[in-house]
Write a structure and sequence with these properties.
Elements: H1 2-13, E1 25-26, E2 31-32, H2 36-48, H3 53-62, E3 67-71, H4 76-84, E4 91-95, H5 98-101, H6 104-110, H7 113-118, E5 123-126, H8 132-143, E6 147-150, H9 155-158
Parallel strand pairs: 3-4, 5-6
Antiparallel strand pairs: 1-2
């Protein structure tokens, strides 16, 4: 993965990255990184270094995370998250495609009115926001009142789709 990491490092050099405004825990070292150079370095390192998923989830729960959403095909991490901290009251949800995001019956089991109201003050970081499930989630969160930070491989891909 070194060649891919080097290509990513080169691409990220020209990409504007703002300082983090919320808590973002990076699985490569289970730490938060707030400054743009730290964020870039962590993203590159994650391509060629094992991540510490269980420790990352425990850290997020310890920091107050109450909802953990897995986006993309499969539900492996959602199942793993449930086993990591069985005492946690956090809720886990897998969204496999844009249709699952709009599946009202499933969403209503997971989201309360309080959760929806909370989106008006939320900041969300959505990776892979240029297409598919990433774009659908970013658009939905923005429509529900969240301030959404999008990442993608191009600046156009990270732009809001409205």
């Amino acid at each position: 993965m070194w060649p891919a990491a080097e290509r990513l490092r080169e691409r990220l050099t020209g990409v504007p990255v703002a300082a983090a405004s919320g808590i973002a825990v990076y699985g490569v070292d289970v730490r938060t990184h707030a400054q743009p150079d730290e964020i870039r370095a962590s993203l590159v390192k994650q391509l060629h270094t094992p991540v510490y998923w269980a420790a990352t989830v425990r850290t997020l729960i310890g920091a107050g995370a109450t909802r953990i959403v897995e986006c993309g095909p499969g539900k492996i991490l959602t199942g793993l998250n449930r086993r990591i901290d069985k005492k946690s009251q956090s809720k886990n949800l897998a969204l496999e495609d844009p249709k699952s995001l709009d599946d009202r019956a499933r969403a209503l089991e997971w989201l309360t009115n309080e959760d929806i109201d909370m989106l008006n003050e939320a900041v969300a970081l959505v990776t892979g926001a240029s297409r598919g499930i990433g774009a659908a989630i970013a658009d939905r969160l923005a429509n529900d009142g969240a301030r959404v930070n999008r990442t993608a491989t191009t600046q156009d891909g990270a732009a809001p789709h409205h």
